[in-house]
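Design a sequence for this backbone.
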């Protein structure tokens, strides 16, 4: 069975850092698009970062230069390193996996989410 388990969230002060983890089972990350999304009250779900089958990475403008997505297939883990956190980054963060192949338009599998709170 496919399972994506997000963890690593917590409460930090603005300017701090967190590293999110997504433990993946039941699928090969390197054969599909993987992504991090976030959702907060009053905002539409936002794709924060994604990495496709070829390793090409895209970041939302709101996190460019601050967040880094990476993956370790040996450990079956997707990461999101978040630096210089801002209060606007406060949200529930979800990891997601797409269908097999290069396309990143849709995501079939979702983790349960891990909460990130950034205080001023």
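Sequence:
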């Amino acid at each position: 069975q496919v399972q994506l388990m997000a963890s690593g969230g917590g409460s930090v002060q603005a300017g701090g850092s967190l590293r999110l983890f997504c433990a993946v089972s039941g699928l090969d990350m390197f054969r599909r698009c993987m992504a991090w999304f976030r959702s907060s009250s009053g905002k539409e779900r936002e794709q924060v970062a994604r990495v496709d089958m070829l390793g090409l990475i895209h970041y939302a403008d709101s996190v460019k230069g601050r967040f880094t997505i990476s993956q370790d297939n040996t450990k079956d883990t997707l990461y999101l390193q978040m630096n210089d956190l801002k209060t606007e980054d406060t949200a529930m963060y979800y990891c997601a996996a797409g269908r097999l192949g290069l396309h990143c338009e849709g995501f079939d599998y979702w983790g349960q989410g891990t909460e990130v709170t950034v205080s001023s």
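DSSP finds no helices and eleven strands in the chain.
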